[in-house]
Amino acid sequence: MITEAQLRRYAIARSLFRPTTLARAIDRLGFVQADPIRAPARAQDLTLRHRVTGYRAGDLERSYPRMALEEDFFVNHGFVPRATSALMHPRTARRVWTPERRRQADAVLAFVRERGVAHPREVDAQFSHGKVVNWFGGTSNATTQLLDEMQYRGLIRVVRRNSGTRVYAVRDDIDLSPLDDAAIEARIDALVDVAVNKYAPLTTRALGGLLSRLGVGAPQWRGRRGAALARAKQGLAHGRVGGETWYWPRAEDPASRRWRTDDAVRLLAPFDPIVFDRQRFEIFWGWSYRFEAYTPSPKRKLGYYALPLLWRDQVIGWGNISAVDGVLKSTLGYVDGDEPRDPAFRDNLEAELERMRLFLGLAHS
Known about the structure:
Blueprint: H1 4-15, H2 22-29, E1 32-33, H3 43-48, H4 59-63, E2 69-73, E3 77-81, H5 82-87, H6 99-115, H7 120-127, E4 131-133, E5 139-141, H8 142-152, E6 156-162, E7 165-170, H9 181-199, E8 202-203, H10 204-217, H11 225-235, E9 237-241, E10 244-248, E11 265-267, H12 278-285, E12 307-311, E13 314-324, E14 327-334, H13 343-360
Antiparallel strand pairs: 1-3, 2-3, 4-5, 6-7, 8-10, 9-10, 11-12, 12-13, 13-14
Helix pairs in contact: 7-8, 9-10
């Protein structure tokens, strides 16, 4: 009989595997969610620092051009191995291109192919597509929007970023020809496996939610969600714990003694796989964590970019971390009001703050 405590330790230990190389860590995670906010670093960097040996903020962006990765949509926007990205194609976007839009895309594709690598500014200088209204209600460069659409359809890929701006090349590694039903099902199931491998253990609700989120990466297969969910439930290991049915990869046993937590204190990214599922978070730790970067300041309870604070197998609070004049500043909050009295906590907290300083390249406070 599996207990909730075993599930909790399993969720932590399987995700916080022994730090390894960047390539191996991303391969093991299967997907790294990205976010542009830097407080004190981007979410992808905050996630990888716990799982990559000697990781420093910005290492993913610096290494990306040399790696077999794609900046792409999966269950969210982020970074996936190139082979996983290819599974989501041929991707059919919600917006159907008009013949004129298709001609524009063909012309831009030929231009990017001829140049090899192209910055949006170069494309705009060549074609001068002007301005359009974006989904935020503001104006965007029409060329940038077209390039985004072309990338989503698998025609071009992001080869790097220059000061945050995507730089593109033609993408020739995927087959855009139609697939038969068997091939489609195989691809959907493979994508589900990637998602489950990252976020297990999952409640029934969370598993269904992941299938819905895959509609971002593969919208053309939304109508197959029900059948894919049924296959996943049948193929995954599962058990009933605390009134919920939980699912996890068949080859793993949450009750195994191999899933052990340590004494380390860790400040986690808001989208770290350990805390990503907010329903699971509340089941495991008994309080509600909210990402408040987009919450008006007077209504925030935890802080602009509060990082969940993990110690052993408990998330006991949160931390707001910043760099001021090259020095790390930290403000911590605790669910119980005060930090644990165990001396081991203070020692491990200081060790985590030192790791954060090294990660950010900061001096001692």
